[in-house]
Write a structure and sequence with these properties.
With about 90 residues, the chain is an alpha/beta fold. A three-stranded parallel β-sheet has the order 1-2-3, with helices on both faces. The longest helix is centred in the last third of the chain and has 15 residues. The chain starts with a strand and ends in an 8-residue tail after the last helix.
């Protein structure tokens, strides 16, 4: 089981992608969510090469069902979601 687990939305590009790549240094489990499945695969490969265990979720978070699936899938795979402030 990973030491720390984070969820990054919009992870396929821009700030979301940069956040995922940065968090791969501190979080061993990363859940990557975005609409662009192909770009998400690239990000998953990149964070995996940094030592993180990625779980890619191609989805649209504009529906509550997608959000529920993301949450359930995260808990099924990693058992929790960690947060950090400061």
């Amino acid at each position: 089981m990973p030491k720390l687990v984070a969820v990054v939305t919009g992870a396929s590009q821009g700030i979301g992608r940069a956040t995922a790549v940065r968090l791969a240094k501190d979080f061993s489990g990363l859940v990557l969510a975005a609409r662009n499945g192909e770009a998400l695969k690239e990000v998953a490969a990149e964070v995996k090469s940094s030592g993180a265990d990625p779980l890619a979720f191609p989805l649209d978070l504009s529906t509550s069902e997608s959000a529920e699936n993301l949450f359930k899938g995260t808990l099924d795979r990693f058992g929790r979601i960690d947060g950090r402030s400061g």
